[in-house]
Amino acid sequence: MEDKAVFDLFFRKNPFRGEFAIFAGLGECVKFLNNFRFSCSDIAYLQEILPNVDQGFWEYLSQLDASQVTMSAIPEGYVVFPKVPLIRLEGPLPVIQLLETTFLNLINYASLVATNAARFRITAGDGVQLLEFGLRRAQGPDGGLSASKYCYIGGFDGTSNVLAGKLFGIPVRGTHAHAFVNSFSSLDDVSENVSFLDFCCFLSIVTPTTETQLLPAGNTNKGELKAFLAYAYAFPRTCLCLLDTYSVIKSGLPNFLAVALALNEYGYRAIGVRLDSGDLAYLSRKCREAFVLIADQFESPWMKKFTVVASNDINEETLISLKEQKHEINSFGIGTHLVTCQKQPALGCVFKLVEVNGEPRMKLSEDVGKINLPGKKSVFRLYSEDGLAILDLIQLCSEKPPEVGKKILVRHPFIESKRAYVCPYKVELLYRDYWGNNGLTQSFPSLQELK
């Protein structure tokens, strides 16, 4: 019970066959350490399923906490690589062993989905907005909240998850549903909650515009027009309409433009449109052409910059294809392929004992990839003269740290032929001390700072 141990948490291979991962979930690990203890009800249940255990063990559990544990880790949100220990835990062997499953659970999905989000961001580029729309497809409510949080860290700009916005301060974005449009059948469906006089004034502007300026009379769906009217009336400053309930070109687009023109008459500006099906590149270009045409016709140049949001099972390959087709999309709503990480369902982090009472420990295996690096270690990131990271150097804490301007021989831990001399222009110790003396040892950054 008194053995002092060191454990490393790391992953063996980059996710998605890529070249990096984003480290996430550390904040939740700190919260877990802060609340780590066994309640009376916990112990009572364990006694039921383990009736032959000595009473002294239950007394030990009742006094157990993380007061003797220290935790060092790479900061959350950093780019990280295989074999590099993300977290180093030190303390009583049985206590740290009990942390294993929870820590792996908190780090594995968080880092995986943050990495997935970063890959989407890199593929889409910095010029477009990325919105996380994955709550309906996530693995349960907890999975939905985690996805919203860590996709934001990974580079997304907002979420449709209102609870995530409330809890984490993530910008909330969204549109109305197809069902909202379907629920209206004609322009005669006037809500009793809307001022009749104001609504009539609204219709007097919109109806002629729809029938004479954009398309011949009768070609647009009047129920859809009424839905857009109602939405614009309720949200005049944030009106963004979903166009594909019936036909984007023949109905949704002209109906939106009519409502946008009406809003303009009342001193408001619509935001844009959303496309959720069909040929997204083609439809986005057609929408942009219509925006430019109407902007010139009505001398409203700001309409040329209407936002086009696209969704519909978007993945990395879709983004690449849309780029090649020269789309006119400003924002992507991405759900299923983002939050479920369909290309790879798990990151594969492991939690390995590397030292006991100052003596190194090493897991041997016929599979070289499963051999862990023994001993208590530090990790340094070495930078070149132009400020770019060259490599992460893993070494024992007992070894002399690398120095700026001094050449050092670095080697791959398992492939002998991979070695090189490096002369760093900057050396960064990646580990920060996050937990010790039964408490947080430094302030933890906000979600916005991590992003």
TrEMBL record:
Domain Nicotinate phosphoribosyltransferase N-terminal, residue spans: 2-108
Family annotation (Pfam families): NAPRTase, NAPRTase_C, NAPRTase_N
Protein name: Nicotinate phosphoribosyltransferase
Pathway info: Cofactor biosynthesis; NAD(+) biosynthesis; nicotinate D-ribonucleotide from nicotinate: step 1/1
Keyword list, A-Z: Ligase, Phosphoprotein, Pyridine nucleotide biosynthesis, Transferase
Catalytic activity from the UniProt record: 5-phospho-alpha-D-ribose 1-diphosphate + nicotinate + ATP + H2O = nicotinate beta-D-ribonucleotide + ADP + phosphate + diphosphate
Domain of life: Eukaryota
GO molecular function annotations of the record: nicotinate phosphoribosyltransferase activity; transferase activity
EC number(s) stated in the UniProt entry for this protein: 6.3.4.21
Nicotinate phosphoribosyltransferase C-terminal domain span: 376-451
Name of the top EC class for this enzyme: ligase
Post-translational modification: Transiently phosphorylated on a His residue during the reaction cycle. Phosphorylation strongly increases the affinity for substrates and increases the rate of nicotinate D-ribonucleotide production. Dephosphorylation regenerates the low-affinity form of the enzyme, leading to product release.
Family affiliation: Belongs to the NAPRTase family.
Any one Gene Ontology cellular component term annotated for this protein: cytosol
Origin species: Ciona savignyi
UniProt xrefs under InterPro entries: Aldolase_TIM, N/Namide_PRibTrfase, NAPRTase_C, NAPRTase_N, Nic_PRibTrfase-Fam, Nic_PRibTrfase_pncB, Nicotinate_pribotase-like_C
Gene3D superfamilies in UniProt: Aldolase class I (3.20.20.70), nicotinate phosphoribosyltransferase (3.20.140.10)
Gene Ontology biological process terms, A to Z: NAD+ biosynthetic process via the salvage pathway
Record's function text: Catalyzes the first step in the biosynthesis of NAD from nicotinic acid, the ATP-dependent synthesis of beta-nicotinate D-ribonucleotide from nicotinate and 5-phospho-D-ribose 1-phosphate. Helps prevent cellular oxidative stress via its role in NAD biosynthesis.
Record lineage: Eukaryota, Metazoa, Chordata, Tunicata, Ascidiacea
